[in-house]
Amino acid sequence: MAFVELVGLTKQFGSLAVVNKINLAIDKGNLVCLLGPSGCGKTTTLRLIAGFIEPSGGEIRVGGKRISAPGASAPPEARNMSMIFQSYALWPHMTVYENVAYGLRLRKLPKTEIRARVDEILAATKLSALGERYPSELSGGQQQRVSLARALVIKPETLLLDEPLSNLDANLREEMRFEIRRLHDEFRYTTVYVTHDQSEAMTTADLIVVMNQGIIEQSGTPEDIYQRPMSEFVARFIGGTNIFKGKKVGTDSVACAGGLVLRCASGDFADQGETAVSVRHHDILLFADKPASTDANWIAGTVTRQIYLGSHRDYLVSIPGGETVRTVAPITVAIPVGQQVWLNFPPEHCRALAH
Amino acid sequence: MTSTVQAPVFNRGIDFSKPVFILLAAVLAVLVILPLFWLMVYSFTDIDRNVTFDNFIKLVTDRAMRRSFGIAIGMAALVGILACVVATPMAWLVARTDLPYARFVRILVTASFVTPPFLGAIAWEILAAPNSGILNILYRWIFGLTDGEFLFDIYTFTGLVFAISCYTFPYVFTLVANALDRVPSDLEDASSILGAKWLTTLRRVTFPMVVPAMLAGALIAILQALTMFGSPAILALPAGFHVITTKIWSLFQYPPKLELAAAAAIPLLLLTIILLRGQKWILGRKGYTVLGGKSGAPRVTELGKFKWLAVAFVFGILCLTVIFPYLALIKTAFTETIDAPLTWESFTLKHFNFVFFEFSATRLAVFNTLLLGVLTATICTVIALVVSYLVSRKSVAGAGILGVLATAPVAIPGIVLGVGLFLSYANPTFMLYGTLWILLIAFLTIEMPAGYQQLSSAFQGVHPELEEASRILGATRLKALWQITAPMLRTSVVATWCFVFIGTIRELSATILLTTANTKLVSVIIYDLNESGDLGAISVLGLLLLVVSFIVVYIASKMPLGAGRLQPRG
Amino acid sequence: MWGKRTAFVALAGAMAWSVSVAHADGYEITPELVEAAKAEGTVVFYTATDVAVAEKLGKTFEEEYPGVKVQVERAGSERVFQRIGQEISTGIHNADVIETSDAVHFLMFKKEGWLASGLPANVLKDWPKEEQDADGQYAAYRAHLSVIAYRSDMIKDEEAPKSLADLLDPKWKGKMVKAHPGYSGTIMTATYAISQLLGWEYFEKLSAQDIMQVQSSTEPPKKLAQGERALQADGNEYNVFRLIDDGVPVKIVYATEGTPLVVGNAAVLAKAPHPNAAKLFYAYLFSQEAQQLNSDFGGLRSFHPGVKEKAGRTPIKDIKLLLPDSAGQEKEMENIKAKYEEYFGT
User: B517: nearest CA in chain C?
Assistant: First the structure.
């Protein structure tokens, strides 16, 4: 059953709808990622859920109870949520211990219980030795852990994360991704996680919600989103892809520029106007020699760039009609720049996108 | 651990921000709008309260009035420029170089801030009056010149600009020095790594970063100069010219022309609004928040062979603003007359005896001054804190209006506010005239902009997420303000309290219209004494005022800072 | 709360008034009056007399009548006038006895009905008739002159100006100090008298002399004492006397054209909060003791026949005086201030 529900949620700043009538249901114990480019409304959505801002329309329900609606919003402190901020928002005038104990002290728990629970969470986040330090004396990763500990120690009904890893360096970020997922699996809080990093979303989320310009483009499991994008935007945003545009021909094919005709095994076609076809970089097959049959889903092109990446080679191939196709090939396939190649787009990997 | 739903005790708590907002809006509206309302009524009506534009026509056609406006604006602009030119390099030297005794310099600058401008003006009368001024006497003595020759004449336009700048430059200094303390070194390092020489970095990165602070400070300095009454009354009148405040004051001579005075305040109000808009625009474009992220300690420039030059510059400024005037006051307090030579024969305690034992007004005035100082500082700081919170966090729709209300009094010259308050509260409904309440209201109104400006710029340095983190963990808005923001702003809060306290005990321009026999203040008796030319007694009272101010600043600076450490330095 | 208090004040005022009427031929200080004054405990005195003189007077009164405290509120005449106007128009009755050096004020006070009737008996008996109000509401408490004076160590006696006209000599350019008619009742009176005698051209020429402009008429003598200026164009005679007594090398010039006489009236307010103490203090102000103190310590001129002037001071009968004309001055006040600002800039 859905625990957190957004119904027609809208937030306008002036005439601009930053969040535009979005609907979303989050099951209890699930981790949902709001994913999208900056300015897509994901952070605003999160802040609406937290109660820092009041919606202009629609409502938010938690556990079936309405907590946000225009003119009738519960304040953040009454929502039993926790949040991890992009800046960590650690209070510089409190020690690590005091930072973590803060939420428990607000709940007026007995001193002994506070100590026990803080010690427990500090251990879980590998911070036991740092309790008496001030935040300014910690490394970025340690600060991030304190932030996590402080949010988790109060056992919130809902946990909100706002780009929590964007200030960390790459190694630490990857480590913390798994750490967050591990902690989620351990505590199973209903979690809303905002990020613009698709791999972060893929690693951590039960459900990914892709947002763009204030609306939800698509929501689904990581696999859904990746394998079955519903729009050009989602296809482009999640994982690398090539987009070809053309008119629908026959029942399941799209005729693109330069004589390329792509038969698509899945997706929706636009009856009028252009249909886009998405083919992932690694789904395109690259041949140095002309194959026997090249009538459908084949095209010839010229290599314009080739990069050695250790695990594979990354190619840019320009095809007739002016498009440039990006694809990858095994290390063993080494074709110099300027040489002609043939590209095959297997229909089962071609997805037609009506918009 | 599972996500058990606890019975959240705080769920019962009401969010007080709305009621607090409404209460504050009401309080500020009464403080600000009521006097302004009467000001408007008077400026647009004749003596029988019939609507008329005559007052404004008189304003524009009266040559003397136009002249006083021109002089006041010119004076204020020059004060602003002078304050920036002096204070910005000084702040940089103190905050970012290995200038020796930097801490000491900060203390002395605080001293010149603490000095009431009218007292400074009187001290400069003692120093640089063309004939009796100590500096001119020395000048004649050194060069063997005859009477009538002089080096300085404080009773001139330039003299006035100088005397006001001496006591307004700390506004720029403090803000710029604080900004420099907070500009993280990585911003400068980034410039250096791109190949900029230190001077280029200074010019292209460091300086632009503090420009908002400098302009904010200059704005305060300009507004102070524009609305200042005491110093022009002391220096401009002997020189034979009016600025707008003294002109307005002269309109209260019998028979008072309240309508014209009210009308004369309106252009001042508009001018101020324009200045504030400009400041907001500048700050809005180049605003930055530094606290909350990772930031290195400020980098320190080694002065090397320029060290002595810097010391001479800073020491020279401090001589002009603090050391000379203070010595002059001390000398005047302890000698018979101001030109008496410094010998044991001329030493006297008669001025002290007069002030403390013969002058009946002293004791009551001291008590009233301290009482009002403490009350105003405390109430004003609390209100300013909450208002700047609501405004900077935009947490309630329409919060911006509070900021406007809290800033608006800056545009009302104290003397005009005095009239507005008199008209508002000295009637059978309130009957506050003749009580300390009307003075408290006046001081709250006058000090609110300064308090609000101070705290709102402090708020801008605290990342909003720090409070949000507290709220989402279950703290109400007020609790978050109290437990998180307040401690982080402690230094700013203490500074604001001192600002307001000191501002209050030296307030003169509104006080002078609102005070009565039972509500005398030290600043008023100083002005009364100046009117009768008792420089000895003035010096004694002035020193008393200064000693009290310094004790306050000292106690405040020694306050235990608790567990918090804002920016530990290596 | 306020209502009660106001009613009390009004009642007290009414009582004081009825008492005064009963003694229309002047009242004496009786033991009953002293007792009633002591019961009130305080008298509030709004005055424009030099602060040190006024404080001294208060002290001697307190010694004479222990149990009655004097609260001296000193400011320039125009300030005192402004304040009392503000207070009374808002129903605040702080002051018991009021005194300014601007005779015009008392015309206004009387017109507004703010003053109590009843003068001490000795005033009715000894004072010239033109120095007491016909209705017994006020009388001349003091008189003083606005005089030219100079530092005798900075200006040789033979070079010193002898007349108002001498002040226009270019050699005094930048050397003079002068008080302001907008702030000082004394100077307002003097300016009116001189403008009547010499016309406004005199002031127009005087303004070209680069004069240091101060506010109160007590201030020019103090500027002389400081040595800030060598010559005062106008200012209180009594302050100069006091400087001479203190040994400051200052000399007075009684201009050949005449010296403006300024009369300072005093009155008891109709709604004085301490009506009996006010009456007692008021009577004391006109006593020989107080008047002699004003003369000796304050350098003020007195209408009391028993007051002896200090040796070395020119007796008032030997000075050519410009006598005040309050009624004429009242009409001209606005004009005087406007003209003055035109010439002197403030």
Answer: C73
Give CA–CA dist B423/A210, Å, rounded.
62
Amino acid (1-letter code) at residue B414: G
Looking at the complex, report in whole angstroms how far the Cα of residue B96 sits from the nearest Cα belonging to chain A.
21
Note whether B60 and B20 are same-domain residues: no
Tell me what pLDDT residue B185 has: 66
Q: How many domains does chain C have?
A: 2
Q: Which residue of A27, A54, A84, A93 is the best one to mutate when testing the B interface, meaning the one whose CB has the most B CBs within 10 A?
A: A93
Does ipTM top 0.85? no
Q: Do C155 and C186 share a domain, yes or no?
A: yes
| For B431, nearest residue in chain C (alpha carbons) | C90
Q: What is the DSSP string of C253-287?
A: E--TT-EEEEEEEEEEBTT-SSHHHHHHHHHHHTS
Predicted confidence band of residue B419 (pLDDT cuts 50, 70, 90): confident
* Parent domain of C321: 145-261+312-344
- Number of Cβ within a 10 Å radius of residue B362: 20
Query: Looking at the structure, do residues B390 and B416 belong to the same domain, yes or no?
Result: yes
Residue type, C35: E
User: How far away is chain B from the Cα of C223, in angstroms, using its nearest Cα?
Assistant: 7
Q: B532 and C219 in contact by Cβ < 8 A? A: yes
Q: What's the CATH class of domain A2-227?
A: alpha beta
Indicate the domain borders of chain A: 2-227, 242-353
Task: Give just the sign of the alpha carbon dihedral C100, C105, C107, C110.
Answer: negative
- C186 and C286 in a common domain: no
Query: Nearest by CB to C182, which of B250, B358, B428?
Result: B250
C140 and C44, same structural domain? yes
Interface residue of B2, B3, B20 to substitute, partner A, most A CBs within 10 Å: B3
Identify the DSSP state of A288.
Answer: S
Mutate one of B63, B254, B422 to test the C interface: name it (highest C CB count within 10 A). B254
Helix (H, G, I), strand (E, B), or coil: what is residue A210? strand
* Minimum distance, in Å, between the CA of residue B392 and any CA atom of chain A: 14
Mark whether C221 and C339 lie in a shared domain: yes
Looking at the fold, whether C64 and C6 belong to one and the same domain comes out as yes
| pLDDT at residue number B327 | 92
Instruction: Give the residue among C192, C204, C17 at the shortest CA–CA distance from C104.
Output: C192
pLDDT digits (tens, 9 = 90+) for C79-111: 788 788 877 877 778 899 999 988 888 988 999
State if pTM tops 0.90.
no
Nearest partner of B92 among B203, B220, B221, B215, judged by Cα: B203
Q: Which residue of A has its CA nearest to B10?
A: A78
Q: Which residues of C touch B516 (CB under 8 A)?
A: 83, 87, 92, 94
pLDDT bucket at B111, cuts 50 / 70 / 90: confident
